[in-house]
Structures
1.
Amino acid sequence: MARRSERAPLGLDLLLGLVLAAMVCALFWWVFSNLDTAWGWSRAWDFRQSLWRGWLVTLELSAGALAGSCVVAGLLVAGQRTRYRSLRWFSRAFVELVRGMPLLTLVLIGYYVVFAQSQVAGLLDRFGVGSKLWTGAALLSVFTGAYLSEILRGGLESIPQGQIDSARAVGFDRFQVFRWVVMPQALRRVLPALAGQFVSLVKDSSLLSVIGVQEFTAQARAFNSATYGGIEAFLPLAAGYLLLTLPLAGVAHAMERHFRYQM
Amino acid sequence: MDIDAQRLTRRYGALAALDGLSLEVERVKVLALIGPSGGGKSTLLRVLGGLEGADEGEVSINGTVLSADERQLLAWRRRNGFLFQQFNLFPHLTARRNITLPLEKVHGRTAAEAERVADESLERFGLTAHGHKLPAQLSGGQQQRVGLARAIASGPEILILDEPTSALDPEMTAEVLELIGELAAGGQDIILSTHEMGFARAVAGHVAFIAAGKVAEHGPSGELFAAPKEEMTRRFLSKVMRFA
């Protein structure tokens, strides 16, 4: 665990803060004063409903893929830790293939090759999961799940053998060793990395516009091309994503503090 | 306790940590394993404690034959207590929770019962003020005392200690050895490996000298320390006791 270094002198700290703030303000002032478009916030206001709808779709996508990716990651970790070699190789290959592909490629192949097939689409429709939203969430779950599984596997393998011996010695069975000793310590260690991956997931959902999911970025683009709105479309876009990602990071930091212990 | 080990072999890759080791003792209360590092003491304790099975050979303790079957070994581990040199406690749990968790999950005690037992053993070992602390907030000696409290909380048939003081400074060593001595005086059956020869001589009724994966010799501790029969034992004892 990182130890907080000693406090810097307060005066110098304040001065540095002021200089940094001034630099950021200057940069923004320079950038925006060079934009020769007149501000047209009324157009953005007219489009607020579709932007809002897009934001909700992104929220749904992210929430669904967050849950889905945990399931995928759990299966892949279990698959890589099983006694069955065939299953281990399959899981390993799956992780490497998914991680080796750009998300855009995975989304396009997944959509056009798998989900858009008429038989598959018909089957999915029968179960009420045929929409592009479901397809997008599933693809995003697979992509993020592959990364999550590697983070989790790294965390599980970082727990020293002595802890496992100790847990077996007090009489825990295989599942209890995992549940009470290995898993809690591993989760604590990988929490920062998990949080980063979830934040990435929220942002990655923007790529699903290529298969026609009407999420936040797609709506902002539509607004932009309809009105040449430009920056008035993209500033709300940035704010909207931060509204999702910053709380996620905040929760992760709170959890880190709560589960803090030293080895 | 009675131990009957016959031709035990345990290999790690090309290394035979136990190389056809045999040991028969009867009605021993405290058995100490001494000998050079890497001689097989820890491996023998792991086999006797049911943490791993032997590749070859047979061992029975108090009439229970230890097989290589994981379920049987689990049942055996649950009857006994084990303390390692270090890395004993679960670092994410308080000292008290380290004791109560196995009581609840393994021995089926209620939370209230487990807490009562934990508080009793913490008090007995002079740790009442430290129950709420995480292992990292305790000294090495305190950690090892909590480990000991956890190992005996379930009332183990045999307490197995693998170099319980090797990672501790002399002062902490003394406080842990004192507790082990108290447990022995209270009638607890104990098997331990140790480099503390004075302690082995004073507390253990029986001593086995282990080297190169075999028992070179064993006998009542008074006899073995006073008149070792084997040249190997004599040389080892004269080396480690030189400054004692």
Note: Chain A has one domain: 48-258.
2.
Amino acid sequence: MARIKRFFQDVYKNKTWLLMVLPGVVWFLLFSYLPMFGTVIAFKNFQFHPDGFFASVINSEWVGFENFEFLFSTDDAFIITRNTILYNLVFIILGLILAVATAIILNEITNKKMAKVYQTGMLFPHFLSWVIVSYFVFTFLSVDRGMLNNIFQWFGMEKVSWYSEPEYWPFILVFMSMWKGIGYGSIVYLAAIVGIDRNYYEAAMIDGASKWQQIRHITIPMITPLIVILTILNIGKIFNSDFGLFYQVPLDSGSLYPVTNVIDTYVYRGLMTMGEVSMSTAAGLYQSVVGFILVILTNYIVTRINKDYALF
Amino acid sequence: MLKPAVPSKKVPKAVKKKNYNPHQLGKKANAILNTMLAVFAFSCVFPFLYVIIISLTDESVLEKNGFSLLPETWSFEAYQFLWAIKSQLLQSYMITIAVTVLGTIISVFTIAFYAYAISRPQFKFRKQFTFFAFFTMLFNGGLVPFYIVATQVLHLRDTIWALILPMAVNAFYILIMRTFFQRSVPESILESARIDGASELRIYFQIVLPLSLPGLATIALFSTLGYWNDWFNALLFIDNPALVPLQSLLMKIENTLEFIRQNTLLTGSVKGIMQSVPKDAAKMAMVVIATLPIAVSYPFFQRYFIQGLTIGGVKE
Amino acid sequence: MKKIFLVLFSCLLLLSGVLAGCSSNESEAGGKDGEEVKLTWYMIGTPQKDMNKVMEEVNKYTKKKINTTIDLKMIDWGDYDKKMQVVIASGEPYDIAFTASWANNYVLNARKGAFKELDQLMDEHGKELKGALDPAFLEGAKIDGKLYAVPTNKEVGQQGVYVFNKRLVDKYKFDIQSIKSFEDLEPMLQTIKEKESGIQPMTTFTPHAPFDYILDDKMPFAVPLEGENKIVNVYETDEMKQNLDTLHKYYKAGYIKSDAATSKEPWALDVENWFVRKELYQPYAENIWSRNAGYELVVQPMHESPITFNNSVTGSMQAISATSKNPERAMEFLNLLNTDEYLRNLMDKGIEGEHYEKLDNGRIKDLPARKNYTVPSFALGNQFILDLYEEDSDDKWEKFEEFNNQSDDAPTLGFYFDPKPVRTEIAAISNVTSEFAQALLTGSVNPDEYLPKFNKKLKEAGLDKALDEMNKQYEEWKKKQ
């Protein structure tokens, strides 16, 4: 009883804070938590029932882990898992380095007007959807009309049929992902860098610290919490991938599958003929659970190193 | 020639280049860094210019020569095609703008409130609520239950709210904002106000928000982009042509093309569709008019954004 | 810490209770004793400007006739599948939906219980409709002996034809009648390639293959039209090998677009950039195509007589939802739509005097406003009661019936495979197929090298198990026939 009483006292004492989180909590409950009950269909053979979704869920038979099997059953399963993880690792590491570097440079260069222009320019790709980006890539890589092959011919080199030669694609995909994401990523870091108290830098300059030392000893440590959080979050999505990047940019070309097939595209292609709600839910759940475990692990490690940086 | 789409890893190395300049960035380093950023920024804008050129290229030239930077024949035909559907375009513009503005306001408020609360050590349940938000980033119930909540619990179908509410909150932004609040709004600043007896809400509006403009501007920018580019919610919830946003007009064309590609056997019976699918130039024109407004308004928007950043920067 | 989760959890439970309540209580039942009913109808096609105008007229008429109004929701081609998957899975109440082998998949949805069984409903509320339909449709569309959607009365069989650009055929005096096989095209393609720049000798298509496909025309499962009556892997047959070899030869010679495997080129008819293409025929189709193209076309059949496949009898249908509160009315409406000439023509071409006009001889002609109302005729309903255009031949519908009578039944007509026992394998095979089939079927890769690889990967993906299951189901089905 006493504990319950104390709980309510706590609630009362924190009422302003609770009021602040209330709108968000309501939203999360409605749009995120409530729909999570739907996940049970990952373990069922989903059959429709005339009385609506709930009746359908209740009346469908349990099948255990059968809906997950297609993710593990073939040799392709290994390839897609490998591709997904490797690409994401590269995206996380390279994306982090490039975004932080760009943000620091934007903050440091002397001509602020130009910095603004660059920043505007770099955010541009973020406005374009992958479909449009894929058109653009196509204008470069098209076999007979592409800009690259035209240049190659100009120099008397062999034409490359880009869309059927897998060896180039890991680079193309990484490049495109960076190209589209860096402007956006650097903004977050820039906002944090600009937010750093100027006094730190002044003190450092009085001590004769070089720019490089300032960056190393002030800027980077000050944005480390943000870096850690964003990285932990990205690790949580390591089994997910940007469908547009892996499906639309390579134009769904079969010969590129060994390097472009990732879990999301595999699920999409596998279920196209059957439209199985249960199996796609199962795939989503698999991605979430792995991501969740990884995040908890990383967060635990971060906690051991420095408690302040932990996500929760 | 223009920088082709080959991988380049030059950018990060540059950071090391400026070792020897103690105070200001040296002239040489500055020039190098400027050039690199300029090249990268140009490579980012270039596709868009290219898209504009294609949209102004004569369709028969596209058919014959493919894409080129300097087309043989220029043509405004693609935009004439769009002029023919101007009433729909105008209506869609209105919807997109309304959704973007309203949505951004709602989402910035909700996110900032939530993030601020979980950034304060005084809030006893901050860890729980952080986790509560974070958990939603990884697990979702899938499309169907989400659709049911929106249509059968909230009755959002065919209302403008169907385009706004589903994207109003984002745990990712909340966590970014939380970090921002933790770093930029230190407790020491708030202590004195608390001693003066100001309520937490008053502190929030009068001290915290003005201090947090860079963060708020970042979140606002992200949600503006999110709303402007969204088409999926419209696909799910909007049947009324008067409520269709701009991006979904564009995506409809794409989806139809993909549909044709996957249903090659159908050619006989889908003749009707083929005629309604715009040609390349028209498609690019569509991209231009769907992207241009936000692209040109962003620099203005960015002024405030930069201002926000600077105000945040010179604070005590 | 634990408590707050407990509290939250109970909130959730409460909310889900609300949710459950909402979803089951919402209904617009009624209409049992002839009260007015509003039916929701999901239809594929680009939404039209004058839709509301036309639907007002439709509703006036249907209200008078069967005291029913229609809320027509047109969903664009590419969006329809995605939207209907969600609508159906969410159990949302609606009444009628377009379904076919190629959109809002008829067999899958029927198997999963999304649609109402119609046999009895049709006997009670759709007698005229049943009489108007070619029996081949009704028989062919039955899944395990039950009908789940009302087929559209149109051509029942599929007849692949080569379509040629007549200008070029005349220019080089080609004898297209002599073309009996895919290989016969070669000299013509060669001439076009050499002499006509800017013209692609052939559009991206796969030649006629003598197979009756089980799932779709890329997946490896099919029964050969000649030979042993069982399901085989088409990619191991000689006929397929020969086709692929020819395709690759044509590809290498430049007759096929060099990026055919990845191209989204729709080969629109009104762009004159091709010489030969493949289409599915119906009587007098060349006239319609020529009209759409704006230049003359000629056709030459790819095979003897039309064949009635599962895909062709389920090519265009209207299903009544299992969640419909007024299935009887829905059936009455479909009955009216498919048998009432006024209603059918109204829905097809819009309002007389505004979108089209009737000429003195009973023929019709489009008016300029028709461009504000163009709906996919073949997807809406009975073709045989449509008014004829000025330039149509008198015997158009007779020719259709003749065409239908000539059609031969495919071996698996009426057999619908249930993938449930092997869905893991099908998912894997589907992936392998999309990796190889597109490249092979456009001739882009050498079959000598890729076909063995493809077959090996199919085997690894569980092809044999899937084939065994299919043949088991097929044998059982054959016994019942």
Note: The mean pLDDT of chain B is 80.
3.
Amino acid sequence: MAEPTTGPLGAHPAQGIRIEGLRKRYGRGDTAVDALRGVDMAVAPGEVVGLVGPSGSGKSTLLKCLGAVIEPSGGRMTLGEASIYDEGWRIPDLRALRRDKIGFVFQAPYLIPFLDVTDNVALLPMLAGRPNGESRERARELLAALDVEHRARAMPSQLSGGEQQRVAIARALVNRPPVILADEPTAPLDSERALAVMRILNRMARQYQTAVIVVTHDEKIIPTFERIYHIRDGRTHEEAGEGRGLE
Amino acid sequence: MISLAGRDILHGWGKFVFTGIGLGLLIGVTLSMAGIYRGMVDDAEVLLDNSGADLWAVQKDTLGPYAEPSNLADDLYRSLQTLPGVARAANVTYLTMQVRPLADAASVGDAAARERRAMVVGVVPGGFGEPGQPESLVAGRHLTRGHYEAVADISTGFRLGEQLRIRRHAYRVVGLTRRTVSSGGDPMIFIPLKDAQEAQFLKDNDAIVAQRRRSAANPAFNRPGQPQVLDAVLASQTQSNSVNAILVRLTPNADPNRVAADIRRWKHLSVYTRAEMNEILQAKLIATSARQIFMFLVILSVVSAAIVAFIIYTLTLGKIREIAVLKLIGTRNRTIAGMILQQAIGLGLIGFVVGKTVATLWAPVFPKYVLLLPGDAARGFLIVVIICVLASLVAIRAALRVDPAEAIGG
């Protein structure tokens, strides 16, 4: 394991996602809980970083703040060149922000069970107002890139776990978001499939120049990260990862 | 944009179809209840149409002959015929009773099985166009003789040439007619007026003997040296000169209200025009049944709404995680609400199609006339849609309260 490092912001370009001094407090007064106490983080385009920590350390809270699902209590977040949070939201339409700028990959794929694979992926561009044909074409390209094109007409229930997760990754990428938030994406998979998913995430991150944050405590994939953010008691510190296993 | 509701319905079509069929049966019952009410109204209209009258003259201060008992002397019609504006006046009697075909020893059981409740109508024989006569026949001929002939509604099941027993006499069916029913939906059997008067008022032999004995024991009737008084009293007790109503047909251009006023003033009878008789039938005779049916309609509507609400709510709760994901990836609330609303309306559509179909199929099997009007079906469809929209609100509220953060673990 490499030595932990501090001062993460200076080492990375201003593109991707940057977080400075992010705080989140639940409740008020004596019952208030500080889930995040000043998180600093930066992920460059094309980079996949790990976010690890024990239960209750603030991983999910950080992910929800990054995903614009809950509002932080303070700090700053910058996505690309745009400030999205600076002691308050700077973006009026958070729904559009999530739809167009952030991709989500969950522990379980959570594909829409009544849509086939193509439409599961094409749904996002359709929601953004793109024509159905163009959306499906874009979905098919991604499915091909993720080697699940042959299951394009299948329903989610007909896919294996690994295939479902690849479709979920395609869905996260389809709107070409600058950042993808992956919440325990390999938890239900065995080692081989977990590593396969990580290889795909890395390949896609490089191909589409997307910053990927993977929340995990899956020992199988932790060695694959070149950089890891450890979160404990609401604070992060960065360390270099091993970056192996993706060959 | 693809239809999320449509895809969800197609994906779980079995669930939707079977739920829709269940709902449809309920809607079918609701439509049938409305059809029964319409049938009752139509029966009342048909009753008035078939009487062929413009005015009904009945016993003073009664709502007869359909809503209350009414007795009139059977010679009153002559004086009505002399009034200005009156074209024809004819006596009529109505008696609802059990009628069965005449049976020989071998077919007693069959005759009992074919016994029908019917309204026996006594009319003056005369044929088509006479007040009280059936307007049209589907087989046979009108009453032409003064006794022991009958024209029966085809729904009684009696056949041409068959003999019926009414009280003590047998009547041969000489004609069949259609859609002649009482306000209660009982089919009509037309017999000559004199026979009907006898059937209505004649007692059985034992009762006549007992009455004669009572009269003979009465010193007021059986006076010493005046035996003719008792004979006259006994004779009056064994014949009837009463009818239930006089059906009056007016001359062209005669004012019904004016003729009715003349009859009330000069003949001391109650008289009703077509509109007034219609009001009596609908507002008084079938009003209670109509309220009963209306209550059933309300209850069935509430039950339907509860079922739709429960089903849609349950289906929505089963998709909470998917809804959270949809919200997280940027789906608008109105898209999610629209999906649930469309599903509810889709369920209602399936239910309505099934309901309309089964109501149409089982309507002829009902013992009472079920009249399914297109207008009622259209109103029913609108109500189903409104119920579905209202029923989906609970599920929509639940869906909109789903936090997109639920899609993210922790």
Note: Residues 50-285 of chain B form one domain.
4.
Amino acid sequence: MTDPKTPAEALESVRKSRAAVAERLATGSLSYDLIYSALVAGMVAGWAAPRPWPIIVIGACTVGLALLARHWARRRGLWVSGVTPVRARWVAIGLGAVMVGLLMVAVALSRSGDQVPAILGLAAAAAAIAFAASRLWLKVFRRETGADL
Amino acid sequence: MSASSGLDPLIHPVGRLQIFAVLSAVAEAEFSMVRDAVGVSDSVLSKHVKLLEDAGYLKVRKASSGGRQRTWLASTGKGKAAFAGHVAELTRLAGLAGVAP
């Protein structure tokens, strides 16, 4: 390994290192996205059950998300909080806002009587949105770390 | 290419520049991942890490996992600022080189 002779060579070495990060993140992300989506959907679907199950399910899903993130970080050798990169963070923040909204609707539905089908429909929507947002986040992250300097 | 006043001499060597390229994209990276991405040996990376840690550019965290200890690296605010400034200067110089006759 020799030091770069020109600024362009130095920038190229930065791009290559970031590309290695992006590649490692992409590997096996589909299984992560599926489990992540299922856990997020579980948080919403839990409100279809009678009390105190919604709180128990939310707690279990939260622990599941934490364990998923920890397992994923250990396997990849990387820890990326959703808000680390500047542009990709808006995808994470947007997803968080949508999920809070869906959870609030689920809570309202659970209080208004027998709304199990509606809540389960909401959970399915949450799963689809979480999956799409997770894929979008990776796409934005890769673009941000790989090409933009 | 020599380090001018706009470039940070501490992260100018390509190995350290690449370490920061990795760490600037993530919250934390494991030592072996950085070693593979940069393409250096353990001992070379250790020397870079010690130097950058002493300068306050990165922090080192040791955590045991599955019966063995793992070392995690993260850039500090000072390190992030230095890297951003260094890359901005490199970009500026590359632009100048691009328009030079």
Note: The two ends of chain A are 22 Å apart (CA to CA).
